[in-house]
Amino acid sequence: INKLKSEFLRRASHELKTPLISIKGFSDLILSLYANQLDSVITSKVREISDGCERLQNIINTLIETSRLESPELKPKVKKEDLSFLIKFCVHELESLAETRKQSIKLDIADELFTNIEKEEIHDVLSNLLTNAIKYTPPTGKIEIKTELREDFVVVSINDNGIGFTEEQKTKIFQKFGKIERYGQGLDLGIDGTGLGLYISKKIVESHGGKIWMESEGKSRGSTFYFTLPTV
Length: 232
Ligand SMILES: Nc1ncnc2c1ncn2[C@@H]1O[C@H](COP(=O)(O)OP(=O)(O)OP(=O)(O)O)[C@@H](O)[C@H]1O
Ligand SMILES: [Mg+2]
Hints:
Blueprint: H1 2-34, H2 40-70, E1 79-82, H3 83-100, E2 104-108, E3 114-117, H4 119-135, E4 142-149, E5 153-160, H5 167-170, H6 197-207, E6 212-215, E7 223-230
Parallel strand pairs: 2-4
Antiparallel strand pairs: 1-3, 4-5, 5-7, 6-7
The structure holds adenosine-5'-triphosphate and magnesium ion (MG).
Residues 128, 131-132, 193, 197 line the site of magnesium ion (MG).
């Protein structure tokens, strides 16, 4: 029963996440594009929608996390899926968020990439890495997603020209609650996180038999996150 319960919790949380990203994305888009044409009463209501979404996102992340901790033996339910399609889907979902920050997302990926994955989980990884790239890159920044095919695995990379990492910061980001305070660095980050995204992403990638890592040449010099997945 316990296993069923956490399985249900996990799936329900995943299902809740996707529409929430759209609601938040579009309410933020309204705020940034039409704020000066709208009544201040309306904008304050839209801001409440956006803040509410943010709180829900945090709760959902905690739910996913708890369900994983409850049963660490839970293996992903993999199926043959086109990773290329999933990447495009994810980019489409987050386009409005990038648009609010006037950022561009460039894709340089293969047309078809067949991998054995649990789609919802890898969606979470992509969505977290991409949301991070958007959040931690100043407006008008550039984000690029690439795939590279090796012998029996594919490497996905998400590069941004944002705030990057110092050597010290690099050591803690994949840890639980590895949140690094970014305030006071001149970034207008409207989105606050819990510091679980990369920790969860690492668990997911590793449970699929892949690896995840990050490279950055230093503060304000951007970052690239990489992960691998076995191909079929
Ligand atoms: N692309 C990036 N550029 C610069 N810093 C980043 C990038 N991605 C993550 N970080 C830093 O690493 C920390 C950990 O990231 P993580 O995704 O785990 O947490 P979060 O984004 O703060 O919260 P959550 O994902 O749980 O909403 C972040 O707080 C942020 O400071
Ligand atoms: Mg994150």
